[in-house]
Amino acid sequence: MAEKKKSSYISGKESRKITRFNRRVTKKLESERADANKDPKLYTTVMKNPQNVVEFDNVCTYFFTDVGVVKAVDGVNFDVPRNSTVGIVGESGCGKSVTSLSLMQLLARPSGQTVGGEIRFNKGDGTAYNIVNTPNAIMEHLRGNNISMIFQEPMTALNPVFRIGAQVDEVTKLHNPEMTDEQVKARTLEMLELVGIANKEGVYNMYPHELSGGMRQRICIAIALACSPTLIIADEPTTALDVTIQAQILELLQDLKDKLNSSIMLITHDLGVVAGMADYVVVMYAGRVIEKGTAEEIFHRPCHPYTIGLMKSKPVVGQKVKKLYNIPGSVPNPVSMPDYCYFRDRCEMCCEQCQGEYPPEIKLSATHFVSCYRYYDEGTVMGYPKSVNVEELL
Ligand SMILES: Nc1ncnc2c1ncn2[C@@H]1O[C@H](COP(=O)(O)OP(=O)(O)OP(=O)(O)O)[C@@H](O)[C@H]1O
Ligand code: SF4
Ligand SMILES: [Mg+2]
Fold first, then answer.
1. Which secondary-structure segment (H or E) carries 117?
2. Domains, the chain, ordered by start
3. What is the pTM of this model?
């Protein structure tokens, strides 16, 4: 215990050094961002595959905190193809929300910064943006018109002092300034009907506290979909709801996604939700993608020991077990990640190679990739994740 305390202790001198470094580096990054915001060559880009809506290409998002640099997302690569649902799973703190906030440019700046990589967003009209450098004015247009977000807790996402109708109207009006008040109300009622609210006229005049949790989440979905977005980010959309409502909400989301030809980035730690909805699955661990593939590949042939552990820890209907499997140990300290496989200290399948550096990404099929030495001889080695050396940012 004393040893542990000693290792995380930061002296006053060190603390001042960290603060000074953070101030200098964030100032420099903010000024570089301001310059990039002015140059369309830096904030527009070309999609690697025009069939993708989003491409995360070696994205590194770090937080410059008082205790050091937290590498919350460190070299993340994955795509969201058009009209598909991509499930992002992983345990608490692995960087799922920070990945989606980086895409929305909603990080707590200046301490949170995307310091490396490219996030390419396909607007669908032949333009693609590198979100990392996109100016605020364009981001404001993209958020809501092209990308929408549904949050975990519907009560906190809605304003308690305004009626439901006014809150949905506001979004419709913002995105369709040419509409008259009657047209806006008609559109709102249409949206309420679309999300399965039977008493739409009544609900239009109600306050959020007068609705149940499931109805509130439906309203949030109506607000998110009011502008027919290309991409819907749903961060734990059903965690606050009971299972039957959860199923209805997920079905509704899937249904609307098909109607609007959108894609969904579904963030959850519920493997059951992913199995039911996702076309592709991305498994994250300690800020990195450790395995990704189609839902079929991940569920029928999980390869990374962490994914295998996740599958084993899931209860199966009709199978009696004395105790559910749990993955031993915990995630390493995000401020000082080891230079070997982040899962090694918890891994029950270590081999000799695991003593070396962090494993490369290995391609097992056209869609299935895993970062684990156990598959080194089986697949094609694609490359090592690229972390950013923060000292070099100055
Ligand atoms: N504003 C912030 N300042 C400092 N560190 C942060 C900040 N936001 C997130 N982090 C850190 O980034 C890491 C990733 O957090 P994130 O919220 O993405 O996790 P998550 O995978 O969404 O977890 P959960 O499933 O609990 O929502 C965590 O270690 C967290 O402590
Ligand atoms: S690389 Fe080695 S330590 Fe890491 S998950 Fe694979 S087998 Fe385990
Ligand atoms: Mg989260």
1. strand 112-122
2. 35-284 (3.40.50.300), 288-393 (no CATH)
3. 0.91
